[in-house]
Amino acid sequence: MGRKVHPYAFRIGAIKGWNAKWFAEKDFSASLLEDLKLRKGIKQKYTDAGISNIEIERQANKVAVTVATSRPGIVIGRGGQRVDEMRKFLEELAGKRIQLNIHEIGQPELDAFLVARSVADQMEKRIAYRRAMKQAMFRTRQAGARGIKIACAGRLGGVEIARREVMHDGRVPLHTIRADIDYGFAEARTALGRIGVKVWIYRGDILPETKPENEDLSAAEMTPPATEAAAAVTEAAKPVEQVKPRTRKKADETVAPAAATSTAAVTEDKPKRTTARRAQTNTEET
Prior knowledge:
Elements: H1 7-10, E1 20-21, H2 28-45, E2 51-58, E3 62-69, H3 72-76, H4 81-94, E4 97-104, H5 112-124, H6 129-142, E5 147-154, E6 163-170, E7 179-190, E8 193-205, H7 213-222, H8 228-285
């Protein structure tokens, strides 16, 4: 399933969270369409801002929108002028009060969508696709990624028959749930048609949090003592081990007196035989 399912959706609940953080018992479809309008409007208006991810959180009468971008200066503008423009634009789309937050991406080379967008932009500028893919892989590996895979599909090089080219460097374990894998997709609109670019970036493992030693000690202290049944079993087991040598000693003691009585009987029989022999010799002499 690792090669069929979206890598982000495959890890939701384990190491990833939801991009839309709200719950609605009623009007779910209206809220969902509103989210799609907000995302589409932001990406269309700020195509050059390097926007990678948009998180939406709903409250009572307010919608909080967090925009992750690699170029916060384009989104914010001078003195926050463009932020106010974006807020008004989104409020017109949604018809609600909107709180706008801007989050800067520290390393754009480790963001799969931004890498895919950069490769697609180079293809639109008529740069060779192999060169663009290799440069993107080199920069991502230099930034600290453990592995990267790039796949381009379409009329590569202007050929008549479309094909798919894949390049990878390092490890990309798609089936490992604890692996932090980012996935991005972008399209290059060339004169001969569209070319799809997919990028997978393996940024390392996200391991579960280890419990501190104090909690382990408290857990050990809170464990209940042994039950009465277990104590009875242990007490019953102890004399069983001591019975065996005692029985052997009794057997030895019973054998020893028997041997003593048999030797005594033999010694008693000897003088009787000697007296009988003396009586026979005396009768013969007479």
